[in-house]
Amino acid sequence: MATTTSQGILAPENAEKRGEILELLEKAYWMEIESVMSYIANSTNPDGVRAQEIREALEEDIQEELGHAQRFAQRIKELYGVVPGSTDSRPSRRSCSRRTSRRTLST
Questions:
Q1: What would the DSSP string read from start to end of the chain?
Q2: Exposed site from 5, 72, 75, 95, fewest CB < 10 Å?
């Protein structure tokens, strides 16, 4: 009886499906990172009577979203992917244009 060292989604014959899963994981990872960035900005910028309450509430959300991003990153690595944002990966043209357009809109 032959045995294989790779089974399930890690098996070579499942490379295409693994690629699809990695794309979804990377998208989810970036969504969590964008949430963290938004929460940081929104927790830093408020002024007024409820500013401290808002900061404290968002601080909890930052940690939660960061934890989600870290779990997605770990799963990407487990599936032989490269976590976006590392020195080994380069942003896609699409992600760069999206960032540029956001910068342009906000200035």
A1: ----S--GGGSGGGHHHHHHHHHHHHHHHHHHHHHHHHHHHHHHS--STTHHHHHHHHHHHHHHHHHHHHHHHHHHHHTT---TTSTT----HHHHHHHHHHHHHH-
A2: 5
Q: How far is CA 95 from CA 8, 55, 76, 80, in A?
A: 31, 29, 18, 21
Rounded Cα gap, residues 5 and 1, in angstroms: 13
Torsions phi, psi for 17 (to 5 deg): -65, -40
pLDDT in tens, 63-79: 999 999 999 999 999 99
Structure tokens at 45: 């910028």
Token code pair at residue 80: 């032989």
